[in-house]
Design brief:
single chain, alpha+beta, Thiol Ester Dehydrase, Chain A, six-stranded antiparallel beta sheet, 2 helices, 23% helix, elongated
Length: 140
């Protein structure tokens, strides 16, 4: 499991005094993009034809995040299909280890050339599984 500490910014806080739900979605996106870059899931056009695209996102909110809370986002691939993968994430309060929000994202393999869904290459799956098994953050 990949863990990314997050730094809260003044503009992340809304008029209610907590981190806005839209900002929490940005935190999940940051966790995914960092995890993908480190684990070997192609995201940039210069990395070839294959990439992944979001087809479904589901978020549950458990507790508010306030200014000066210490938080992190955890990310890992929980399931692999032929053309899809499921990414599980949590934003946790690192002082209490309690989850503030969870996110499940279903992503589809995609061919930039054809503009259609594509099978996930075995080498991509292997790189990610190897990364997860050797990650110093592995505690799933």
């Amino acid at each position: 499991m990949h863990t990314l500490p997050l730094q809260l910014r003044f503009n992340d806080i809304d008029m209610m005094g907590h981190v806005n739900n839209a900002v929490i979605m940005e935190f999940f996106d940051l966790g995914k993009s960092t995890y993908f870059a480190e684990s070997g899931i192609p995201v940039r056009p210069d990395e070839g034809d294959f990439c992944v695209v979001i087809v479904h996102v589901e978020v549950d909110f458990f507790s508010q995040i306030h200014w000066q809370d210490h938080i992190a986002v955890t990310t890992h691939v929980s399931n692999w299909g032929h053309k899809s993968l499921r990414v599980k994430q949590q934003i946790i309060n690192t002082d209490t280890q309690q989850p503030c929000a969870t996110c499940t994202t279903v992503m589809s393999g995609y061919s930039r050339k054809s503009g259609k869904s594509a099978e996930i290459p075995e080498d991509v799956k292997q790189r990610v599984m190897e990364y997860d098994s050797h990650s110093s953050n592995a505690n799933d």
